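Why does residue order matter? Because the sequence determines the fold. Keep that principle in mind as you read this record.
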Amino acid sequence: MPSASHPATLNRFLATACALLIGYACLHPLTGWQRTGLPLFDYLYAPWPRYYRTEDIVLNVLGYVPLGFLLVPALPAGLGRPAAALLATVLAAALSFSIETTQNFLPTRVASNVDLGCNVLGALIGATGGALLGRSLFGSGGGLHRLRDECVIPGRAGDIGVILLGLWLLAQLTPETFLFGSGDLRRQLGLPTPMSFDPERFMRLEAVLVAASLVAAGLLGRCLLRGQNPLPVLLLIALAIAAKSLATSAFLAPGGPLIWLTPGTRIGLMAGLLLLAVALLLTRIQQHGLAGLALLLATTLANLIPENPYLTAGLHRLEYGNLLNFHGLTRFIADLWPFLALAWLSALGLWRGEHLDLR
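Structure:
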């Protein structure tokens, strides 16, 4: 019988993933590195800026709240609550200081003591919440840890799989991509689109892409779960649809929660749900293999099919500030996710000391 997951492992994975996501978002687009010639730490003594955006201040605070919250249960259990909250805040502040200082070398970014202060405030708020609630939720015997042990496969495979599905949900907040679509490397590699836009062919390919992506994500979730109950898989799909609706409503003009529901997407969604229902009746090893094949098919199509011109033309509110950084983060995750998922599926059951039943 595989041993239960140690709570500190998942906590540290979550805190590390959160820190990496913050780092990428704050240093996006990670190009054009150069020295400005100005003293490196001059930004620390700059006066209050004449022009600032209230939403940027709010986002700088909110962006560090999850990190502060997650750091507390990831720290050694012997620390008292005040000490854990203080140390979590200091660690988050060190991350923010490092990022703001590094921004001196990016011409598209501006190092800011206001941003640093807002980040530290957000980390303090999160760490305070983590000290009060974090260990009762994530600690040994905590509610979320018990739920994880009861529902998710044990060990590192389960911990990484939970993070992987969280990243997939985050990727759905990219408004201009297809529903569930990911793995498009053309923008990252500067590659042209091999197909011209033809409405009928586009609708067919879009339907196949959506169906394959839905089956892949659903079966990956199934591989992560212990039991046979399909409701968590359906909940995962529903959360992804809600995230896509939120993104299209917020960032596309004209805004609307169901702009993504094109004719091809509607067909692919219905076909994908039917195929997933059938696939959930298969054995675990068959589901494992089918998840990999569906991921490969969906990723291949994502790199062949033209972008939806209606969605890309409707993008707005992403030209500036933290919203642009957030969009760069979600786009990067969407581009990278299927390759991480394929690596996880390949390694599933091969982690040292873990013997997962895939029959």
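Confidence is low (pLDDT under 50) at residues 352-359.
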